[in-house]
Automatic annotation (TrEMBL):
Keywords: Carboxypeptidase, Cell cycle, Cell division, Cell inner membrane, Cell membrane, Cell shape, Cell wall biogenesis/degradation, Hydrolase, Membrane, Peptidoglycan synthesis, Protease, Septation, Transmembrane, Transmembrane helix. HAMAP family: FtsI_transpept (MF_02080). Residues 72-250 form the Penicillin-binding protein dimerisation domain. It comes from the Bacteria. Its EC number is 3.4.16.4. Belongs to the transpeptidase family. FtsI subfamily. It is an enzyme of class 3 (hydrolase). It is a single-pass membrane protein. GO terms for cellular component: plasma membrane. This is Peptidoglycan D,D-transpeptidase FtsI. It catalyses: Preferential cleavage: (Ac)2-L-Lys-D-Ala-|-D-Ala. Also transpeptidation of peptidyl-alanyl moieties that are N-acyl substituents of D-alanine. Pathway: Cell wall biogenesis; peptidoglycan biosynthesis.
Amino acid sequence: MKLARPKRVASQPRQQRFAQPPKLERWRVWFVVVFLLSLFAILLGRGLYLQAWNEGFLQEQGDARYMRNLRQAANRGMITDRHGEPLAISTPVQSIWASPRSMTLLPDGQERAADWEPKSEKDPVPVSKSEIKKLATALQQPFEDITKKLSYSRKNAKGESVKPDFLWLNRHMSPNDAKTVMALNVPGVYTQTEYRRYYPAGDVMAQIVGTTDIDGKGQEGFELTREAMLAGKSGSRTVIRDRRGYIVEDVSTIVPAKDGETLQLSIDRKIQYLAYRELKKGIEAANAVAGAAVVLDAKTGEVLALANLPSYNPNSRERVDLGRKRNRVVTDTYEPGSTMKPFIIAAGLEQGVIKPNSVVMTTGSMTIGPATFKDTRNYGQLNPEGILKHSSNVGAAKVGLMMSRENLWTYFNNYGFGASTHSGFPGEAFGRVRPWKTWRPIEQATMSFGHGLSVSLMQMARGYTVFTNSGEMKPITFTKMIAPSPGKQVISSKTADLVKNMLEAVTQPGGTATKAQIVGFRVGGKTGTARKIVNGQYSREKYEVSFIGFAPVSNPRLIVAVLVDEPSTVGNRYYGGWVSAPIFQEIMAGSLRILGVPPDAPMNNILLPGLDAPELREET
């Protein structure tokens, strides 16, 4: 059988067959779609991350290219004395700074092209060595130092070397010198207004007012304790700068600086100068190591003067020995010696163990156990006034031993020994009075004439306000007061007045402080001579001598306390009546004249011992 041949189909043209689009497999289509969507999702996520979570970083990077936040320094508050005289003031100065990141140093001999323009915001400005030399000359600094500063770089978190955007070149220049620097037009060098502290009184008042550091922060004295009050609050100004450092416009509200407040102290600058001068004169005459003096208003407890030697110049930025910065009146402690005896007599009178006319037998020496202490000579029978007048160690010890340990400790505590005076001065010393339960008889006896306990000169001066205020102890203050603050009644007014009058006898012939007398004024006070403790033992060559007194006795106006450290023992005239009493006399006499206090005695009131009278002093 013959098979039929299939019918031939006419073939399509060749161009039509190849012009048909190729058919893609379905999985390929979906792959491309998913890939493109993934890319879009990544871009969208990156955009969200940059705009939402990392916006702050990007904004900072952008602002760093052209924005600057300028600090507006606040003027530090002035410190004045009680009459408004300046003790610390701030004067405007200019400080020069540079941005090493925005500049690059050219090789020697190469200058910046006149038509130079930055290719990008990050492109640093080239600076020639000749410009740096002119800059160094204007700054009065070595060329090598300025070059080193401008070439300085540090490692960042990624280990890359990065130049800082801010670097001080010179702080606190005068406006004229800063103007000379800025006239050079060195790219990347700018100026900023700051304030520098100036102390008109210099070393006379250094330990009271204190100092600030180069950034204007208090470091010592009342500059430190009243930092919050004096410092004020800095302002700010955000601006846009061009590549040359010129301000184009402000981009935010200017926050003005708030200046610090004025601090008015109780110090009288005239009395302060007087106290410093006389203390310095007395220390030089005694060839002593150091000294301190304080003048109090006897009625209010205000500190009118406080002098320390050696001192230092707070206007100088040079390194100072820390010993010169010590405010010895407040921060140092010492054994008060015989200046403690009035408090013992007052306690004995208050307790009733002695009376004004009581007689105490002093035999010249006293032995308790293995220890023996003595007077300069045997005074025989002495009443309380005689114990103070002749500064009898034996008499004071016997009165102290008449009281119980607990009662005597209570009086020490009430007088403020071993406790803060709350004067507000930094680093105030408390001193030390041991618990009464640990006292032995010899310790109770020696504390009665000022050994075996430690105090500050400020504590002792405050204690004497008990005798000038009818038994009321006044608080100490360094700020001027409108009205006196209430004090603490420690002893009765009768006892206080009795002891006050007894202390006048100390300055009369037969007493240990005849050199404390003042023409036209009745003076009361007490001398003190104490051996210094060296390597745990009392030295026989080093002493701390003092005198604390008040005037006029009829109506006390001032209390002056003087302490001299290690006067020369040559000639055997190292005790308080010879060294400290004359300093007291000069300070007190001058201060009474400055304040215009009327005399309470005739002009011929000075009574000196006879030429054949024995020289009186404390036995230590």
